[in-house]
Design a protein that fits this description.
- The strands form six sheets. The protein has a four-stranded antiparallel β-sheet with strand order 1-8-3-6. The chain has a four-stranded antiparallel β-sheet with strand order 2-7-4-5.
- Among the domains are: 143 residues, Jelly Rolls, CATH 2.60.120.10; 123 residues, Roll (CBS-domain), CATH 3.10.580; 151 residues.
- About 4% of the residues have low confidence.
- It has 632 residues and is of the alpha+beta class.
- It is built from 23 helices and 20 strands.
Amino acid sequence: MIIEEVLDFLRKVPPFQFLDDSTLKEIISDASMEFYPKGTFIQYQGGTAPDFVYVIKKGAVKVSIKNENAEVFVDYRGEGDLIGYLLIFGGTKARANVVTIDDTICYLIKRETIQHLLNANPAVREYFNKSFLTRYLDKTFSEIQNKNLVYGGGDKMLFTMPVGEIASKDIIKASENISIQEAAEIMSNYRISCLILIDSQGIPSGIITDRDLRDKVVAKGKNCQHPVTDIMSVPNVRSDAKEFCFEAILKMVKHNVHHLLIMQDEKLKGVLTNHDLMLIQGTSPLSIVKDIESQSTTDGLIPVSKKINSIIGLLLNEGAKASGIIRIITEINDRLVKKILELAEDRFGEPPVPYCWIVFGSEGRKEQTFKTDQDNALIYHDPADPEMEETAKEYFRDFSLFVRDALLKCGFPLCRADFMATNPMWRQPLHVWRKYFTNWISTPTAEAVLNSVTFFDFRAVHGETRLLDWLKDFTLSMAKDSKIFLGYVANLAIKNMPPIGFLKTFVVEKSGEHKDKLNMKVKGLAPLVDIVRLFALEKGIKETSTIERINALRDKHTIIKEYADELLHSFEFIMLLRIGHQFEQLKKEKDINNFINPNTLSNLEKRIAKETFQLISRIQDLIIERYKAMIW
């Protein structure tokens, strides 16, 4: 090693920056330097503790811990960060896996040297106490194993508790051959709200609830001597006992069921109800869905829609990952939109032709947090004749206006660019939509590319979903074979550069209302979304959400295969920063935005933000190289 070069480096790195040159020279007198290619394990969890503390000179590493169920991400560390400092305080086994995510160079300083330094230098000892020990050693090792330190805490209860642990286990069952009256007597005697019906093999074949007795028997004047099979529901939606409560909630919300059969080894383990979930949450997303379903007017949906934001606060407090939060919010918002569409159908009567209501933007990618602009469109079946075409135009014009106004009342602002079904351009039969995409892809002007990538994030919310499936098959097949079009999309993916400078400093807004802040949406999230969308179009991937696209591309795209985990971590990190920031603004009754002052971030968050921006920049460089003949 060149001594002066090492000295220059350590003078800028805490805690070594507190030392004079003579002490620094003594420390590095027996130090060494090592190069670790990308993908090298510097340290294995449970392996023999290394004899050195590593100081990263160049490159980056990922720190993770394996528990019984999975690998838990703990930290990213880059230039100037230390590896192995906990082992200074004892231990013969490494506590975590440390793997390089870039070619990495480290200075290796003996543990005994650092231990002597701590004993002799109060400033260095204080630095370790404040920066490291408080953060890590005050938590037990088991807590670290079950806690993701980057994303705001351990996934409590909903996100760690298997659904089998809270489901009601005292299950009352009865033969499917009994009468309605017999079933009602059993439910009354045991004071239960649902009864599981089984076939001759003991397998659950149906379920009846007190609501079934009320709506299907009493209200209809049905003969109670009829077989119970006349009113039972077939419980097709089930959950495995090992699944987390979070997954069960998604199923119950998505399928609008209030009782979920919990199975273990193909046998009935228990029944999960909305009440069970409320006991561990204090409230439940299902209660909001139930409120939505019970409304018969758009005005009745207004107070219900205001409760949705409270779920975000609940999930943040539970320590949920961003992906968990946006999935639940997406399901609830979808249910609200579906209800409004059903009310519209009730008001205007049966549609003259089948239609499909589609959403795009963040809603289409299932990445909504707080209510965003309306981004929707309508595809309808090609009319059989001109008369039917005119009827369809009039019907869907009035229909879309009703839906727009109802969504506006429920807190969804109008799209300023008018990407809404009320715009006649985005309310068309299937053959017109096919023509749109044909023109956009074959003649990729700037406006055409913007329109096409906007709509490539579309997904169906309600109606005849096959219409969208047909359109998606057609458009994806065209797009992946059009190199010129993909070149335009590639230009869009590199347009927004992440806010990181040459010297790894944040590039903040220079003036205006948001001076000295980072635009986490335009400069952070948008380029990541654009990159993943480009790769999805290259391979004809149908998924629309960024997470689903990354997972679908793992084995199909060389760049994603290499960077999939890092992209997922980066997406989670940026999304959770935005959600937390916006929720704090909401609590203070401020207008929500995406501008974050980097000085409000913790050192760990700053480091991860820089690593995230560098990752985006690195992949943008790969895109430039890949499309160098088409990039301008």
